[in-house]
Structure prediction request, 220 residues.
Amino acid sequence: MVFMSEIQDSLEEEDRIASLITQMDQSEKQQLIFSLIFLAKRPVTFDEISQIIPYSTDEGNYSLIKPIINRINEELNSRSAPYTIIENKNEKTFKLALKKELIEKISFSNYVFTLKIPRSKMKILSFITYKTIIRHNIVSLDDILSKFGVMGINQTNELEKEGLLYQKRLELEDKGKLIIYELTNHFFDIMSFPKEKLLISQHLRDFVTDYLTEEEEDDF
Prediction:
């Protein structure tokens, strides 16, 4: 009986929360959906959005959620935001992305070429960017040695002297003491990356793609 009572209490609490969300005005729903898509590091599914904006049926959900997405995009456009929410209709997912016209105008390879940094060094920077910023992993001295050899260590030291990287000592329980590499603020400044978090993520991916093949990215 106690168990059934707990289940009933849980169901009542879920109904109460659902009722509160259903009563939200449009601006609150827009904020919830935009926050979910903004924070996600992958496309957000229709089902995931439905969990925070509940309605009676799946069909009802889609017919009501899609206009909210459209209103969010209209607001982003009115603010001249550089990104928009795009939909994959086959998979019923949504994600935030740079506007197509901006992506077509941006060419990091042309910009970086004017810096006269050798391609071999750019591959090291791309490797560290991909591992630390995009994959949220660490890059150790051993990683550089394994991937680029002794020449890679020498070039990493040069990049450190040029102010693009810095060394940091770290001790992990499973790996012991490590020397790891991280990107400096100077790196972001000379690459002219925007300060806005979402744009940094997209532009870093563009930067990495310019210097790494798909096979190399998969290998990392």
